[in-house]
Amino acid sequence: MDNPQEAQAPGPNLLDLDLTDCEALVAALGFKTFHGRNLFKWIHKHGVIDYDAMTDVPKRLRAALADHALLRLPRIIHSRPSADGTLKWVMELDDGQRIETVYIPEEGRSTLCVSSQVGCALDCAFCATARQGFNRNLRVGEIVGQVWHATRQLGVAPSNVVMMGMGEPLANFEAVVKAMAVMQDDLAYNLSKFRVTLSTSGIVPNIYRLREVSDVALAVSLHAPNNALRDQLVPINRKYPLEELLPACRAYLAGDQRRKITWEYVMLDGINDSLQHAKQLIRLLEGTPSKLNLIPFNPFPDSGFKTTPPAQLEAFRQRLMGSGLLVFTRKTRGDEIAAACGQLVGRVEDRTRRGERPVTVGLPTLPPPGGEPPRCHAR
Ligand code: SAH
Q1: Per-residue model confidence (pLDDT) at position 354
Q2: How far is CA 366 from CA 3, 37, 230, 280, 370, in A?
Q3: Pick from 221, 49, 65: which is nearest to 129 by CA?
Q4: SS3 318
Q5: Is position 174 annotated as part of the catalytic site?
Q6: Given the CA of residue 297, which atom of ligand 1 is nearest to it?
Q7: Which residue segments constitute the domains of the chain, with CATH numbers given?
Q8: Which residue has the CA at smallest separation from atom 19 of ligand 1?
Q9: For the chain: N or C, fewer Cβ within 10 A?
Q10: In contact, 237 and 262? CB cutoff 8 Å
Q11: pLDDT at position 347, please?
C-alpha cells in the first residue's frame, strides 16, 4: 500500500477532495449539498481545519465528518528563508517522506513552486531531484496542502503557482489535475488559468489529455534543440522525441492567440549553449507561439555541469531575440538555501535504487552541436 493513511482511514481525507467530491460526501452523509460548498470554503478559503470553528456547518454534520472523514495536511518540518526573500518549506508526509515547496516573492507578484511527486523517476542529467530517485506520487491533499500551508504562513494566497517543484506532474496526472482545479476554484484559492502553470519534461500523450480537462498554462523543459542532445539531457525524449513534442504543444494552445508555450532551457556551459544551438532552437520553435526562459544552471554536488558564463549567455540570448523570439533570463533565486530550480531534494526513500548506480559526471558522449534539428514545426 502506497500510503499508510489508507490503511487506517475512517474515510476520505477532505484535503483530497475537490468541490464536487465535497458536495457528494456531504450528500452521502445525508445533508444538503450546499453544506459541502461551505465545508470546502472553510478549508481552503478560510484555512480552517477545526470542525468546531466551521460555524455555519450543522453540528450533526460536523460530528458525522469527525466519524467518517479525515482532515490531514503535510507537516511543515523546516522553514528556511533566503536573503533574497525566497522561502523554502520542507514538509513531511504521513509515511515520513519529505518534499520541498518554494515561495518566491517578486515585484507585484509571488510564485509558489509546488512538488507533485516524492522524488522523480525521469533522470534528467542536470537535476538534483533526479539523483534522489523516486518513491511515489503525491496525493491531491499533499499537493493542495502545500498551497494551503503557504497561504496560512504568508497570510495571503500566492498570486501564481508553478508545478515546478520535485517530480514530473504529468506522471501523476489525475492528482495534479484535481489539485490544480482546487487552486483555480473561486471558493478556494481563485487562481486564474494564466496563474497556474504546469511544467513537464514532455510526456506527450498526457499533454493531449491535459488539454481535455484543464486550461492551465503549459511550460515545457526543452533544454536542447535537437534529439541527439535532448536524448542525453532529458531521457524521456527517447520515448517522446521533439517531432512528437512540438505538435502536442501546439495542439495544447489550440489556436488561442493569447497563449504561448513557455520553454525552459537550462544553460549548461559547453553543452547546449553555442550560437549553433541557438540557431537550431530558432528553427525548432518556428511556428509555435513561444516564450523562452533561459535558466542559469544551478549547481549541486557532483553534478558534472557548469553554468554558461554571463557573456556567452547574453550572446545566446541576443541571437535568439534577433530572430524575434521572446526570451527571458530567469534570475536565480534562493540558491543559498538550495531552493533554486533543480535543487529540491526533500527526503526520498528511493524505490528505483538509482542511488546505487554510479553517477555519470557530465555527459558520456556528446553529440556534435551541428546535428540536424528535427523538421517538425508547422509552417
Ligand atoms: N519535471 C518537470 C517539473 C520540474 S520543473 C519538468 O521537467 O518540467 C523544474 C525546472 O528546473 C525544469 O525545467 C528543470 O529541467 C529545471 N532544472 C532542473 N535542474 C536544474 C538545475 N540544476 N539548474 C537549473 N534548472 C534546473
Answers
A1: 63
A2: 41, 55, 10, 16, 11
A3: 221
A4: helix
A5: no
A6: 23
A7: 14-68 (1.10.150.530), 75-356 (3.20.20.70)
A8: 342
A9: C
A10: no
A11: 75
HSE value, Cβ hemisphere, 13 Å, CA-based, for 19: 17
Please state, in angstroms and as integers, the Cα–Cα distance from residue 165 to each residue in 32, 37, 146, 378, following that order. 38, 30, 11, 31
Residue 344, CA distances (Å) to 109, 112, 260, 337 in order = 22, 13, 27, 10
340's grid cell: 533554486
CB 273, CB 267: distance < 8 Å: yes
Exposure string over 166-179, b if 16+ CB within 10 A, otherwise e? bbbbbbbbebbbbb
Cα 9 to its chain centre, rounded Å, is 28
In this prediction, residue 309 carries a pLDDT of 97
The whole-angstrom distance between residue 55's C-alpha and the CA centroid of its chain comes to: 35
Indicate whether residue 115 lines ligand 1 (CB < 6 A).
Answer: no
Q: How far is CA 355 from CA 133, 204, 236, 267, in A?
A: 7, 28, 19, 25
CB of residue 298 inside a 6 A radius of ligand 1: yes
Tell me the three state secondary structure of residue 245. helix
- Is 100 assigned a catalytic role? yes
Ligand 1: does its nearest atom lie under 6 Å from the Cβ of 273? Answer: no
Q: What are the start-end ranges of the H helices in 55-99? A: 59-68
Q: Comparing C-alpha atoms, which of 135, 125, 222, 127 is closest to residue 172?
A: 135
* 239 burial level (CB within 10 Å; 0-12, 13-18, 19+): exposed
Cα separation, 69 vs 156, whole angstroms? 27
* 291 contact partners, CB below 8 Å, separation of at least 6: 260, 261, 262, 263, 326, 327, 328
Q: How far apart are CA 242 and CA 230, in angstroms?
A: 9
10-residue averages of pLDDT along the chain (379 residues) = 49 97 98 98 97 96 96 95 92 96 94 97 93 94 98 96 97 98 98 97 98 97 98 98 98 91 98 98 97 94 94 98 95 76 77 56 40 29
Residue 124 · residue 101 · CB < 8 Å: no
Residue 85's nearest CA partner among 97, 103, 73, 67 is: 103
Give the number of other Cβ atoms within 10 Å of residue 188's Cβ. Answer: 22
